[in-house]
Protein backbone atom coordinates (compact mmCIF):
# COMPACT_ATOMS: atom_id res chain seq x y z
CA UNK A 1 0.00 0.00 0.00
CA UNK A 2 1.24 3.47 -0.74
CA UNK A 3 1.84 5.71 2.19
CA UNK A 4 -0.62 8.41 3.11
CA UNK A 5 0.20 12.07 2.63
CA UNK A 6 -1.42 12.74 5.99
CA UNK A 7 -2.01 10.52 9.00
CA UNK A 8 -4.08 7.47 8.21
CA UNK A 9 -6.60 8.35 10.87
CA UNK A 10 -6.77 9.86 14.33
CA UNK A 11 -6.21 7.78 17.45
CA UNK A 12 -9.32 7.16 19.62
CA UNK A 13 -8.49 10.12 21.84
CA UNK A 14 -8.09 12.35 18.78
CA UNK A 15 -11.40 11.17 17.39
CA UNK A 16 -13.02 11.99 20.73
CA UNK A 17 -11.53 15.47 20.49
CA UNK A 18 -12.90 15.77 16.97
CA UNK A 19 -16.29 14.68 18.32
CA UNK A 20 -16.22 17.42 20.92
CA UNK A 21 -15.48 20.06 18.27
CA UNK A 22 -18.13 18.67 15.96
CA UNK A 23 -20.88 18.56 18.58
CA UNK A 24 -20.12 22.01 19.96
CA UNK A 25 -21.37 23.69 16.80
CA UNK A 26 -23.61 21.08 15.23
CA UNK A 27 -26.48 23.56 15.22
CA UNK A 28 -24.44 25.96 13.07
CA UNK A 29 -23.75 23.17 10.60
CA UNK A 30 -27.41 22.21 10.57
CA UNK A 31 -28.45 25.79 9.90
CA UNK A 32 -25.94 26.05 7.07
CA UNK A 33 -27.37 22.96 5.42
CA UNK A 34 -31.03 23.29 6.34
CA UNK A 35 -32.18 22.88 2.76
CA UNK A 36 -32.92 19.53 1.16
CA UNK A 37 -29.43 18.11 1.70
CA UNK A 38 -29.89 18.08 5.48
CA UNK A 39 -32.58 16.60 7.70
CA UNK A 40 -32.21 19.11 10.54
CA UNK A 41 -33.67 22.55 10.99
CA UNK A 42 -33.03 25.70 12.93
CA UNK A 43 -35.33 24.72 15.80
CA UNK A 44 -32.82 22.43 17.47
CA UNK A 45 -35.00 19.35 17.00
CA UNK A 46 -33.26 16.50 15.23
CA UNK A 47 -34.21 13.07 13.97
CA UNK A 48 -32.10 10.16 15.11
CA UNK A 49 -29.72 8.76 12.51
CA UNK A 50 -28.80 9.94 9.01
CA UNK A 51 -31.46 11.74 6.98
CA UNK A 52 -30.15 10.15 3.81
CA UNK A 53 -27.80 7.36 2.84
CA UNK A 54 -24.24 7.79 1.74
CA UNK A 55 -23.87 7.76 -2.00
CA UNK A 56 -21.47 5.23 -3.45
CA UNK A 57 -20.10 5.49 -6.99
CA UNK A 58 -21.70 8.91 -6.96
CA UNK A 59 -20.64 10.59 -10.17
CA UNK A 60 -18.95 10.46 -13.54
CA UNK A 61 -15.36 11.40 -14.18
CA UNK A 62 -14.58 14.91 -13.00
CA UNK A 63 -11.49 16.64 -14.40
CA UNK A 64 -9.00 18.10 -11.99
CA UNK A 65 -7.95 21.69 -12.54
CA UNK A 66 -4.50 20.77 -13.82
CA UNK A 67 -1.50 18.54 -13.33
CA UNK A 68 -0.90 14.82 -13.02
CA UNK A 69 -1.69 12.57 -10.10
CA UNK A 70 0.73 9.88 -11.29
CA UNK A 71 4.07 11.30 -10.25
CA UNK A 72 5.26 10.53 -6.73
CA UNK A 73 4.13 13.30 -4.40
CA UNK A 74 2.47 15.21 -7.24
CA UNK A 75 -1.00 15.77 -5.82
CA UNK A 76 -3.54 18.45 -6.70
CA UNK A 77 -3.25 21.61 -4.63
CA UNK A 78 -6.06 22.62 -2.28
CA UNK A 79 -7.15 25.22 -4.81
CA UNK A 80 -7.36 22.58 -7.53
CA UNK A 81 -9.36 20.30 -5.24
CA UNK A 82 -11.76 23.14 -4.44
CA UNK A 83 -12.30 23.78 -8.16
CA UNK A 84 -12.87 20.05 -8.70
CA UNK A 85 -15.51 19.88 -5.96
CA UNK A 86 -17.25 22.97 -7.34
CA UNK A 87 -17.28 21.41 -10.82
CA UNK A 88 -18.72 18.10 -9.55
CA UNK A 89 -22.40 17.94 -10.58
CA UNK A 90 -23.13 15.55 -7.71
CA UNK A 91 -22.11 18.08 -5.03
CA UNK A 92 -25.07 19.99 -3.61
CA UNK A 93 -25.51 23.69 -4.33
CA UNK A 94 -25.52 24.34 -0.58
CA UNK A 95 -22.04 22.88 -0.12
CA UNK A 96 -20.72 24.72 -3.17
CA UNK A 97 -22.10 28.06 -1.98
CA UNK A 98 -20.38 27.63 1.38
CA UNK A 99 -17.05 26.64 -0.14
CA UNK A 100 -15.40 30.04 0.14
CA UNK A 101 -12.08 31.16 1.64
CA UNK A 102 -12.10 31.64 5.41
CA UNK A 103 -9.10 33.98 5.39
CA UNK A 104 -7.31 35.18 2.25
CA UNK A 105 -6.99 32.05 0.09
CA UNK A 106 -7.40 29.50 2.91
CA UNK A 107 -10.38 27.25 2.25
CA UNK A 108 -12.22 25.15 4.87
CA UNK A 109 -11.14 21.92 3.20
CA UNK A 110 -9.20 18.99 4.61
CA UNK A 111 -7.64 16.80 1.90
CA UNK A 112 -6.07 13.40 2.54
CA UNK A 113 -4.30 11.30 -0.10
CA UNK A 114 -3.97 7.53 0.10
CA UNK A 115 -4.78 4.15 -1.40
CA UNK A 116 -8.43 3.23 -0.96
CA UNK A 117 -9.43 1.78 -4.34
CA UNK A 118 -6.23 0.14 -5.59
CA UNK A 119 -5.87 2.54 -8.49
CA UNK A 120 -2.68 3.62 -10.19
CA UNK A 121 -2.54 6.82 -8.11
CA UNK A 122 -3.64 7.97 -4.69
CA UNK A 123 -7.31 8.57 -4.00
CA UNK A 124 -8.50 11.88 -2.58
CA UNK A 125 -10.58 12.08 0.60
CA UNK A 126 -12.05 15.57 0.84
CA UNK A 127 -13.77 16.93 3.97
CA UNK A 128 -15.53 20.28 3.64
CA UNK A 129 -15.83 22.07 6.98
CA UNK A 130 -17.06 25.28 8.55
CA UNK A 131 -14.54 28.10 8.87
CA UNK A 132 -15.07 29.01 12.50
CA UNK A 133 -15.05 25.61 14.17
CA UNK A 134 -13.97 23.07 11.55
CA UNK A 135 -17.25 21.16 11.71
CA UNK A 136 -17.51 18.59 8.93
CA UNK A 137 -20.41 19.44 6.64
CA UNK A 138 -19.64 17.06 3.76
CA UNK A 139 -17.20 14.28 2.82
CA UNK A 140 -16.19 13.02 -0.63
CA UNK A 141 -13.85 10.43 -2.14
CA UNK A 142 -12.39 10.87 -5.64
CA UNK A 143 -10.69 8.04 -7.49
CA UNK A 144 -8.05 8.58 -10.17
CA UNK A 145 -9.37 7.36 -13.51
CA UNK A 146 -6.50 8.49 -15.69
CA UNK A 147 -3.84 11.17 -15.68
CA UNK A 148 -5.32 14.33 -14.18
CA UNK A 149 -8.89 12.95 -14.12
CA UNK A 150 -10.92 11.88 -11.09
CA UNK A 151 -14.25 10.15 -10.52
CA UNK A 152 -16.50 10.74 -7.52
CA UNK A 153 -17.04 7.39 -5.80
CA UNK A 154 -18.39 8.43 -2.40
CA UNK A 155 -20.20 11.37 -0.86
CA UNK A 156 -21.95 12.18 2.40
CA UNK A 157 -23.56 15.59 2.85
CA UNK A 158 -25.28 15.28 6.20
CA UNK A 159 -23.37 17.11 8.96
CA UNK A 160 -21.65 16.64 11.22
CA UNK A 161 -19.56 14.12 9.28
CA UNK A 162 -15.88 13.34 8.81
CA UNK A 163 -14.23 10.75 6.54
CA UNK A 164 -10.71 9.36 6.90
CA UNK A 165 -8.44 6.57 5.69
CA UNK A 166 -7.67 3.74 8.09
CA UNK A 167 -5.41 0.92 6.90
CA UNK A 168 -6.87 0.98 3.42
CA UNK A 169 -10.50 1.29 4.55
CA UNK A 170 -12.75 4.35 4.52
CA UNK A 171 -14.03 5.38 7.97
CA UNK A 172 -16.98 7.76 8.20
CA UNK A 173 -17.81 9.24 11.61
CA UNK A 174 -21.08 10.96 12.51
CA UNK A 175 -22.68 12.40 15.61
CA UNK A 176 -26.32 11.31 15.99
CA UNK A 177 -29.06 13.21 17.79
CA UNK A 178 -32.51 12.36 19.11
CA UNK A 179 -35.25 14.95 19.41
CA UNK A 180 -34.50 17.30 22.26
CA UNK A 181 -30.75 16.65 22.43
CA UNK A 182 -28.71 19.81 23.07
CA UNK A 183 -26.11 20.55 20.43
CA UNK A 184 -23.23 19.76 22.79
CA UNK A 185 -24.60 16.34 23.80
CA UNK A 186 -25.37 13.96 20.95
CA UNK A 187 -27.08 10.72 21.85
CA UNK A 188 -24.49 8.64 20.07
CA UNK A 189 -21.60 8.47 17.64
CA UNK A 190 -21.59 6.14 14.65
CA UNK A 191 -18.43 4.98 12.89
CA UNK A 192 -18.99 3.11 9.62
CA UNK A 193 -16.23 1.25 7.80
CA UNK A 194 -16.30 0.84 4.03
CA UNK A 195 -14.00 -1.27 1.84
CA UNK A 196 -13.50 -0.95 -1.90
CA UNK A 197 -14.60 -4.18 -3.60
CA UNK A 198 -14.62 -4.45 -7.40
CA UNK A 199 -15.94 -1.01 -8.36
CA UNK A 200 -17.83 0.14 -5.27
CA UNK A 201 -17.41 0.85 -1.58
CA UNK A 202 -19.12 -1.87 0.45
CA UNK A 203 -20.04 -1.38 4.10
CA UNK A 204 -18.05 -3.76 6.27
CA UNK A 205 -19.08 -2.71 9.76
CA UNK A 206 -20.85 -0.04 11.75
CA UNK A 207 -20.34 0.68 15.44
CA UNK A 208 -22.53 3.03 17.45
CA UNK A 209 -21.35 4.40 20.77
CA UNK A 210 -24.19 5.47 23.04
CA UNK A 211 -23.47 8.32 25.43
CA UNK A 212 -25.17 8.39 28.80
CA UNK A 213 -26.84 11.70 29.66
CA UNK A 214 -26.39 11.07 33.37
CA UNK A 215 -23.50 12.67 35.20
CA UNK A 216 -20.74 10.13 35.46
CA UNK A 217 -22.52 7.86 33.05
CA UNK A 218 -20.65 5.37 30.92
CA UNK A 219 -20.34 4.96 27.18
CA UNK A 220 -21.28 1.71 25.47
CA UNK A 221 -20.33 0.57 21.99
CA UNK A 222 -22.90 -1.40 20.01
CA UNK A 223 -21.91 -3.13 16.76
CA UNK A 224 -24.29 -2.36 13.93
CA UNK A 225 -25.22 -4.46 10.94
CA UNK A 226 -22.44 -4.65 8.37
**Which residues form runs of ≥5 with pLDDT under 50?**
1-52, 58-72
Average the pLDDT over all residues and give the rounded result: 72
| Cα end-to-end separation | 24 Å
Q: What is the helix content?
A: 10-25%
Describe the protein:
The radius of gyration is 17 Å and the shape is globular. 37% of the residues are buried. With 226 residues, it is of the alpha+beta class. The chain contains 4 helices and 11 strands; from the N terminus they run ααββααβββββββββ. Mean pLDDT is 72; it is low at 1-52 and 58-72.
Reconstruct the topology from this structure:
Elements: H1 12-24, H2 26-32, E1 55-56, E2 61-63, H3 78-87, H4 93-98, E3 109-114, E4 123-129, E5 136-146, E6 149-156, E7 161-166, E8 169-176, E9 188-197, E10 200-211, E11 219-223
Antiparallel strand pairs: 1-6, 2-6, 3-4, 4-5, 5-6, 7-8, 8-9, 9-10, 10-11
Key descriptive features of the protein:
single chain; 226 residues; alpha+beta; six-stranded antiparallel sheet; five-stranded antiparallel sheet; disordered N terminus
In short:
The protein is of the alpha+beta class. It is 16% helix and 35% strand.
